[in-house]
Amino acid sequence: MNKEVDVLIVGSGFGGLGLGAKLKQNNHPSFVIIERANDVGGAWRDNTYPGVECDVPSHLYSFSWKMNPNWSKTFAPGDEILNYMRDCAKDENLLENIDFNTEMLTSTWNSKDKLWHIETTQGLYIARYLVTAAGHLADEHLPNIEGLKDFKGDCFHSARWNNDADLTNKRVAIVGSGASAIQIVPEISKIAKEVVVFQRSAAYVVPRPDSIYTEQQKRLFKRMPSEMNKLRQDIFWAGEYNFIQRRNVPKFVNEAKKTALDHLESQVEDPDIREKLTPDYEIGCKRLLISNHYFPTFNQPHVCLEASALHKVEGNTLFGKSGVRYEDIDTIILATGFEATQPPFAKRVFNDQGHSLDAQWDKGMQAYDAITVHNFPNLFVINGPNTGLGHNSVVYIIEAQVDYIMEALEHIKIENKTVFEAKKSSEEQFVTRLQQMSEGTVWLAGGCKSWYVDQRSGNLTLVWPDFAYSFRDNNGTFHREGYDLS
Amino acid sequence: MNLSENKKIETTFNGLPLNYYDSGVPRVENDNLPMVIIHGTTGSTDTHFGYLFPLISSRCRVISIDWSNINEDKLTLSDLKEQVYSVINMTLEGKKYNLLGYSLGAVIAAKIASERVNDVSGLILVAGWQKTDEHQILRNHIWNILRKENSEALKLYMSFCAFSTSFIQNSSLEQTVENAKKIEINEFIDKQMKLNSTIDITDDLPRIKAKTLVIGCSQDLMVPTHHSKQLFSSIDRASYLEIPSGHGVVYERPAELFQHIDHFISNPERFTDGSVINVRQA
């Protein structure tokens, strides 16, 4: 049986829950969230590796309309964030709107009935408006490494943690040195017999200003929510301050670099290891990491840093690109990141010509106002092109996008229309301006290869190249002039 | 310095050296007016606008002067104002522009806006004041005593007055002491401090015709918000907002300050005359 709704949202992470909550609060009569898993939470449901925590302070990495006085510490652990999201779904009565275990297979715009036809693992849905809220960190990136599939031990991605794999007294290889790896490595090294970290490129790591909230503080937040809000604003503006580093202003780039390199110097004893852990690109070009525990791990004799990528696997022997071999490895953990630059959902969304969004984005993803795409009517993309940040909270960005969608739906209703489509000229003008804004930023001028930049075009497609507040200024309000309505 | 390092221009005024910075047109072209920015007491483009200059220059052409000492013993408002005029005359040649002043720079900016009513299109006054009051005179008096005693406490006293409690709380005593050492005190600062004690531009303010944004700092001990409220009340086309910061807002909350400047540059009309702006929260 077909299920017909006005708005269909794909995904129940922060994006899906954020929009769902607003629709609910506005008494929207007909919407559904389809979720491929059996729980809400997106990346926070999927990432259960030891030591998983957020890199943005929790009083900001949460919805402005649902502040939480009970965060246990500055950077809450993953399970606490997941529980917060579950509470959001429950408290906003969203569970009745979520169809779990329902994966979008294809979504096709039908220009005859002017509706989206969404094939899922649970059957067909028909919707007037389609909103993808897949998130940047939804689908894991698996590297193509010779011999890896024939590896005899346990091998899994950090976002698909195998809880049955006992790592106690094992020889464990961790592939990657990004945001997940730096949280996993210190935890695994506590129990493993030996740990090898394959590092393709070194990361800048700065101190993590983490502290536990006392019962007194939490009680104050409950009794006086304005204090909690004050903290939120302080965190937001402290984050915004750091945008100037991404803008590549030397004085501030150098300050940040000194902080990171001093941190390395103070935490790692061996100068050779320090040398290997020193990046060869500008700070901020790749994601800036925060940890107090990652570097000291390499002071331990059973932890080895292989300063090259994993090249090939033969039986239980792993070879670095440097040629160094590591024998008798029991477990490989792939902390190799996510398919963020070319999001897999785009392969499943088709316009009335049968062309996929992925095909239209063959030179890199782009969208008008970072949310709508010409040739794809009645589609909103949450967390799509140019919505990432290197310096602040993505939940803030999501809230701006939710505002945009709510305003767009209201506008279309007021005009008594049913179909909107971004004008190609508006989209191109928007993207040209973004490219101008991106010039000279550390992402493009910092001498690194990162997932922020689409290698096919060399354009910065993932990140908003300005302050977070300016994302809300520019993309938090529906711009009627950029659309054809019918 | 930073982006502006290679934009520094060395010139002279009344036979004395005078430096200013001119960013040129922004990378992303637009119709925004150029902006002249004026630093405050003890400051320079580098120390007060090291954060703001490169960012404002991404939105519009920005020109910033570094005040120069004068040969005379007594510094007047007119001396500093004439230095700014000389740079404006050299760079903007009768064009319209926006003007931003911080602290004592706001006093000068207001004075200029009252005189060049046809040229100054928009005016931003950050932590400024119109008339020195007894509270400020007491602070300056204590400053003078410490200065005469050549006290080690002088720079720390300045820091204590300049920053909010929460900003100070976030630094160790060691860090605060280290940062305070960077403050430069010299004969020119002495002259500026004397000038600070005698400010009165009350009669000039009603002549200002520019769209004006008055920004007060809610935890300012040096120029408490009642001064900004006086400016808001005295200037016809003023609007008012506060930033939760001490007087040293250019260090404490520069990104938030930039947001308001950015909003003003892109669309001054969004600030309704006579309105108190409720700043949207994150």
Automatic annotation (TrEMBL), chain A:
It holds the Pfam family FMO-like. InterPro entries: FAD-bind_Monooxygenase_sf, FAD/NAD-bd_sf, Flavin_mOase-like. GO terms for molecular function: 4-hydroxyacetophenone monooxygenase activity; flavin adenine dinucleotide binding; N,N-dimethylaniline monooxygenase activity; NADP binding. It comes from the Bacteria. Keywords: FAD, Flavoprotein, Monooxygenase, Oxidoreductase. Its EC number is 1.14.13.84. It is an enzyme of class 1 (oxidoreductase). This is 4-hydroxyacetophenone monooxygenase.
Automatic annotation (TrEMBL), chain B:
Residues 34-254 form the AB hydrolase-1 domain. Pfam families: Abhydrolase_1. Gene3D superfamilies: alpha/beta hydrolase (3.40.50.1820). One of its GO terms (cellular component) is membrane. One of its GO terms (molecular function) is hydrolase activity. Keywords: Hydrolase. Coiled coil: none annotated. The keyword Protein biosynthesis does not apply. The keyword Hydrolase applies. InterPro entries: AB_hydrolase_1, AB_hydrolase_fold, AB_hydrolase_sf. It comes from the Bacteria. This is Alpha/beta hydrolase fold protein. The lineage of its organism: Bacteria, Pseudomonadati, Pseudomonadota, Gammaproteobacteria, Oceanospirillales.
